[in-house]
Design goal:
The protein has 17 helices and 13 strands. With 503 residues, the chain is an alpha/beta fold.
Length: 503
């Protein structure tokens, strides 16, 4: 059975009449009679109006954040409203059209053979007072109406289903975002700590040049992680995973992060650590990240002098109580105020706060893995250590397919043997493969790469030769010095001898 708007109008006036009668009863009947009248009155109301309504408001509480329930219901109803509603609202999301039901529209939904009505409501308040907070004139909500006999089923099963389904739809169609943190100084009331743009990096695992076996392992690991909510809950671990990507510049660490984000359909939070004032701000940043996201800390060794800091923290502990003559108290405080410490970072990765929200990947990148403090990258914090290395033949084949749409070519053999001898980053290989003019054919591009590899080989040979010479030169110099020293000693001895003889 479906309840439409007109029917509700009638029920509304019936309720108003009952309320009037109830006010009369309260005023003129003695207290001992009122209890029994109350029971009968409720029965009467239920008889005439056995329907229950639940409203989900767009903004709840302090109105700063859209209600998650409202968003989920909006997503859930949008598919139904496309088929049913006469008035729809249109928008574009990620280059595709999105339709939702317009204000004051109704749609019906069916669940386990029972039909319900959902209505979209908009109320406009008249107050137009001056305020710093966002305009509060329009309030939107979704309202479900159902018979009281379905109360249990609706509240315990149906609404749960709607919210879950709506969230899934939202995740599938959402526009992914790339966030970066604003400098600590600019935080304030109503300002978010993150600013964002739409995430549009096109890198995928298919276009990522690396050993196919290693690539498959990483993809399997990611899939396992993203589906392991129950597993993590069972073993009592926060649902997150740490990756450490290390290797020389231009080997694809940033590209790999983009590929992971596209693979898992996650948002990316790129943390600029140098803009974070202290550990508290770092924690606040973490709390403001959403689920299904990657938190990236690039070039971790450059962002903070982590090893140095740890030593400093230890030194400070040792020096506790003693007065430091060279550092004034003021300077020390300033230093503490403006820096994130290693322990703050460790807390960020796996402290109690990091467990909130769930389903997050934390990725560190570095060019110098040896510089990092072992505590920062130990297993459990950084669960997988992935080395991104120079381009080998397998990686080259991916780039050739990607840039030139080539599976094989007579020059492949030469390139393979050159790549075995020479270290060239995928970034350099890719740059050489790119056509320099629109008319350049694949042969010319491969020729450019071969030439670059041969040049690199020649340079490496020259460098080795120079080093050898230097080594030889140094060796000779040392030999000459040693000889000179020996001669001097002999002469000195010769000078001493006559005296000794005289003695
Ligand atoms: N493994 C790779 N697969 C595909 N393209 C790559 C790969 N490595 C590098 N490239 C290409 O080289 C460019 C630079 O790579 P990227 O920025 O990912 O390197 P990086 O390892 O992050 O370097 P850095 O350490 O300097 O940050 C990319 O835009 C991409 O086009
Ligand atoms: Mg990078």
């Amino acid at each position: 059975m479906v309840i439409r708007g007109e029917t509700w109008g009638q029920f509304g006036s019936a309720i108003a009449s009952f309320m009037f009668i109830w006010a009369m009863v309260n005023q003129y009947f003695p207290r001992y009679l009122r209890a029994s009248i109350d029971t009968h009155f409720k029965k009467l109301v239920n008889y005439f109006c056995p329907y229950v309504q639940i409203t989900f408001h767009e903004f709840s509480g302090d109105r700063l954040k859209r209600s998650e329930a409202y968003k989920s219901i909006e997503n859930y109803l949008s598919s139904r409203s496309t088929k049913q509603a006469k008035r729809l609202k249109g928008d574009v999301n990620q280059e595709s059209l999105v339709l939702t039901m317009d204000d004051h529209e109704e749609v019906t939904d069916e669940f386990e053979g029972i039909k319900f009505t959902w209505a979209s409501i908009k109320t406009v308040s008249e107050t137009k007072s001056f305020s710093f907070s966002p305009p509060q004139d329009e309030k939107r909500s979704y309202k479900i109406t159902f018979h009281a006999k379905y109360r249990k089923m609706i509240t315990e099963t149906y609404l749960d289903y709607v919210l879950k389904e709506g969230k899934e739809i939202g995740m599938r169609k959402r526009q992914r975002k790339l966030y970066t943190n604003s400098p600590s100084d600019s935080y304030g009331y109503g300002r978010t700590m993150w600013s964002h743009i739409v995430f549009e990096h096109r890198a995928t695992f298919q276009t990522l040049a690396m050993d196919p076996k290693k690539k498959k392992e990483i993809m399997d690991d990611l899939i396992t992680f993203s589906k392991a909510k129950d597993y993590y809950a069972r073993i009592g671990k926060a649902w997150k995973r740490g990756y450490l990507l290390y290797g020389p510049p231009g080997t694809g660490k940033s590209t790999m992060i983009a590929a992971i984000a596209n693979f898992l359909n996650y948002d990316v939070y790129d943390v600029e650590l140098t803009a974070v004032k202290n550990n508290t701000d770092l924690r606040k940043l973490l709390i403001e990240t959403s689920s299904k996201s990657i938190i990236v800390l690039e070039d971790i060794d450059c962002s903070l002098d982590l090893t140095g800091q740890r030593k400093e923290e230890e030194d400070e502990k040792k020096e506790e109580g003693k007065e430091k003559k060279d550092v004034t108290q003021e300077k020390k405080e300033e230093k503490k105020m403006s820096r994130v410490t290693l322990s703050g970072l460790l807390n960020f990765i796996d402290g109690l706060w990091s467990a909130s929200g769930g389903e997050r990947l934390i990725i560190f990148t570095t060019n110098h893995v040896e510089k990092l403090d072992p505590a920062l990258i130990r297993r459990g914090r950084m669960d997988r250590h992935i080395e991104m290395s120079y381009c080998d033949f397998e990686a080259f084949k991916v780039l050739a397919k990607n840039y030139l749409d080539l599976d094989s070519h007579p020059l492949f053999g030469v390139i393979q043997s050159l790549l075995e001898e020479i270290d060239m980053t995928p970034a350099d290989v890719a740059e050489n493969l790119m056509p320099k003019t629109i008319v350049e054919d694949v042969g010319t591009c491969l020729g450019t790469l071969t030439e670059a590899l041969e040049n690199a080989k020649e340079e490496a040979r020259k460098k080795a030769e120079k080093e050898e010479k230097l080594k030889y030169g140094q060796g000779q110099e040392e030999e000459e010095k040693a000889m000179e020293k020996g001669e001097k000693e002999v002469n000195q001895k010769a000078k001493k001898d006559p005296k000794e003889e005289a003695a």
